[in-house]
Amino acid sequence: MIWDIGATGVGGTTALHVACFLGHVGVVALLGQDRRMTANIINTKNNYGSTPLMRAVEWNKLSCVESLADLAGVDWETKNISGEALEDVARRKKYKEVLKYIRKVKADKDSPVWKLSKLSQVLEELEN
Question: At CB < 8 A and 24+ separation, what contacts does 115-122 make?
């Protein structure tokens, strides 16, 4: 049986949202290996405006945040429905390690994580 990797369920969540919310880093990595996992799917917002990355930050799932960093096309500039950026949520919830990691990724614009994120987004826009 082939399933739709980008299918949404209750609240507009994808399998990646659920894995990040629950902290299942192995599932995040497994989903990320699927060739159908595009930047559009990685950055799908649920009904509350949260991407899988935002869900991982909201629930203090550092290992999932780190695993998502390995996926090309992750939007590190995403904001939730309230207009909060990743850093805002981590700071408000006092998730120091998550906040530190986000700042590290965003500060190093020459990092492979940052470059892959931006390159993947540009390529996907050109295809559409």
Answer: 116/72, 116/73, 117/72, 117/73, 117/74, 117/75, 117/76, 119/72, 120/39, 120/72, 120/73, 121/39, 121/73, 121/75
Which of 9, 5, 87, 84 minimizes the C-alpha distance to 46? Answer: 9
In Å, how far are 6, 34, 89, 109, 124 from 13, measured between CA atoms?
9, 18, 19, 29, 21
Angle at 73 between CA 41 and CA 13, to 5 degrees: 25
The predicted-structure confidence for 68-127, as pLDDT tens digits, reads as follows 998 988 999 999 999 999 999 999 999 999 999 999 988 876 666 666 665 665 565 666
d(CA 60, CA 65): 9
